[in-house]
Design goal:
By secondary structure, this protein is mainly α. The chain has 13 helices and two strands, in the order H-H-H-H-H-H-H-E-E-H-H-H-H-H-H. The chain has two domains: about 130 residues, no CATH class; about 110 residues, no CATH class.
Length: about 300
């Protein structure tokens, strides 16, 4: 049995999706597990985390970090991706209203803005999404919501367009990005692999000629290796693959990451990322025909 098959079998037979071995279920690992299983045609198994996510959804449409905490609710973005991909893969609309309520909440939620200030390197007037309510917009949650909204037919919504501008604005001059700032106390910050990979995923299909995008892809190609941490490796590979630049040794690196995890016990979170990074990103990032209600259409 291949490592990928072992990984998928573990995800398919697990009844909890957490950040740690034996830990409680959380929304992010559950959504990633659903995406990974559906992407690899394990549809029946993918329904279990999808149903768990639906059961944790709040009445306002948001999905909190776990079953007992409905805030912060940034995992709503990943839940949308998971439900939409599963519905599209199955060719039915089991989660139509669930997705529609999550979209409405997402479009109404935003990070805070500030007047433009010379000592801050990025445009603080642009609106994206934040990790927690009433805080500044940051790169990773903004990338996740962009991907979710694109997947459900909201690519041209004004919120998605502004968020795309935010992502490009916060790319560093030499490529890559970090958590969201560019310059602090006069110093240009260093890039990190995981948020850069997410940024490249969010910018798939965009007609953007900014040279920092090419520099960011080159940064990922330089930084990734078999020694990269699991989450950085997976998001970096997905970002490159989404732009047709998956490195030749990618499969070997993922196998090495799986072997390291197997030696000390692997969480659903990291196993799901490895399985998802083994799947072509276009399989779950975009669908030509949205299978859901418009976010502006009243719920029935």
């Amino acid at each position: 049995m291949t490592q990928l098959a072992k990984n998928l079998r573990y995800l398919a037979t697990n009844s909890a999706w957490g950040y740690h071995v034996g830990g409680p279920s959380a929304a992010e690992p559950a959504a990633l597990a659903c995406l990974a299983l559906a992407c690899h045609q394990q549809h029946d198994a993918a329904r279990l985390p999808a149903q768990w996510l639906a059961a944790t959804q709040a009445r306002d449409g948001s999905v909190g970090v776990n079953a007992s905490q409905n805030r912060p609710a940034w995992p709503t973005s990943l839940a949308i991706l998971a439900w939409n991909h599963l519905d599209a893969a199955l060719g039915r609309r089991e989660y139509t209203e669930t997705i529609a309520r999550a979209i409405r909440w997402s479009l109404e939620t935003h990070g805070t803005t500030q007047p433009r200030q010379e000592h801050i390197g990025h445009d603080t007037t642009l609106t994206g999404w934040s990790w927690a309510a009433d805080t500044h917009s940051w790169m990773e949650p903004t990338c996740m919501f962009i991907m979710a909204l694109k997947a459900v037919g909201q690519a041209h919504h004004e919120r998605t367009r502004e968020a795309k501008s935010l992502i490009i604005d916060r790319l560093l001059s030499e490529g890559g990005c970090n958590y969201g700032n560019t310059i602090v106390l006069g110093q240009t910050l260093l890039p990190h692999v995981q948020p850069t990979g997410l940024a490249m995923l969010a910018l798939v299909g965009e007609d953007a000629s900014d040279e920092r995008i090419e520099k960011s892809l080159a940064y990922l190609e330089t930084e990734l290796s078999g020694e990269s941490s699991t989450s950085s490796l997976c998001y970096g590979l997905m970002g490159l693959a989404a732009h047709g630049r998956r490195p030749a040794p990618a499969s070997v690196w993922l196998e090495q990451a799986y072997d390291r995890l197997a030696q000390r016990g692997a969480s659903s979170y990291k196993l799901a990322l490895i399985a998802l990074a083994s799947c072509p990103p276009h399989n779950w990032l975009r669908w030509p025909e949205p299978l859901i209600l418009s976010a502006k259409e009243p719920a029935r």
